[in-house]
Amino acid sequence: MKIGIIQQSCTADVQANLQKLQANIERVAAQGARLVVLQELHNTPYFCQTENVELCNLAEPIPGPSTEFYGALARRLDIVLVTSLFERRAPGLYHNTAVVFDADGTIAGKYRKNHIPDDPAYYEKFYFTPGDLGFHPIATSVGLLGVQVCWDQWYPEGARLMALQGAELLIYPTAIGYESSDTPEEQERQREAWTTVQRGHAVANGLPVVAVNRVGHEPDPSGQTNGIQFWGSSFVAGPQGEFLYRASSDREECAVVEVDMQRCENVRRWWPFLRDRRIDEFQPLTQRFID
């Protein structure tokens, strides 16, 4: 399967962001991508750097204007498209939601981000209600997609639940970057940890992983911090965690990466982790902590 990934910067001009996304999606589709994955909250800047109720006006219903735009694009280009939207479910009730479009332009399914961070410059709990759709793969014309969003990527349980339900790919739209007060050494440790934990999901489940991050500097509107330098480094890893592609940390990039889906079957035969799992001993995992 040929997978298109789009790593780009965003501005406050939503229409300009959409136009750039459309051009980049068209570019990777012209190169043969059948599945295209976008970064987290790609329509706008990463607005969670501050707590501001007015920014809730960026949210929209699903279906809504963005789903019409991306659905039409998927249909015209005959691609499966993974997007990431700020969902207005009801007044005062919002989600960080990945919406997947099939090649006919219909909504194949959606996933609401389950793990919601609350850290300096990442005040997502102010905006997003935790997801209530569980961890379930989305059926598309290119296969079963195990889609999660950003902070979910640090947790092995979600990846495992997707794999146990037949997911053929693990996909993570992302928005993560450097804190300016950290030393360069600490910044690099964090970026490598982010990459390593997701490659671990690939290995543990015998599945390819697609992680697409934004790139570039976005200032803090409040001026309380120096903003976020998103570290890019979007990548596709194979079922043994091997890099099939890794983008730069500081440039916009579009890439088409070919993934051998049959190799996943072979890897699972060589390393039969699902066969050897001691599921009879795992019940304590449902506890917050074992005192």
Features:
single chain; 291 residues; alpha+beta; six-stranded mixed β-sheet; 6 helices; 25% helix
What report would you give on this structure?
The chain starts with a strand and ends in a 15-residue tail after the last helix. By secondary structure, it is an alpha+beta fold. Helices cover 25% and strands 28% of the residues. The protein has helices at residues 14-30, 65-77, 156-164, 184-205, 262-270, 273-276; strands at 2-7, 35-37, 80-90, 93-101, 107-112, 118-119, 122-123, 138-140, 143-147, 169-174, 177-179, 209-213, 215-218, 228-231, 235-237, 243-246, 253-258. β2 (35-37), α2 (65-77) and β3 (80-90) form a beta-alpha-beta unit. The mean pLDDT is 97. α3 (156-164) packs parallel to α4. A 6-stranded mixed β-sheet has the order 5-4-3-2-1-17. A 6-stranded mixed β-sheet has the order 8-9-10-12-15-16, with helices on one face. Strands 11-14-13 form a 3-stranded antiparallel β-sheet.
Quick structural summary:
Helices cover 25% and strands 28% of the residues. The chain contains six helices and 17 strands.
Topology order in helix (H) and strand (E) letters: EHEHEEEEEEEHEEHEEEEEEHH
How far apart the termini lie comes to 46 Å
Report low-confidence residues grouped into runs of 5 or more: none
How much is the average pLDDT? 97
Helical stretch tally: 6
Described by strand count, sense and barrel closure, the largest sheet is:
6 strands, mixed
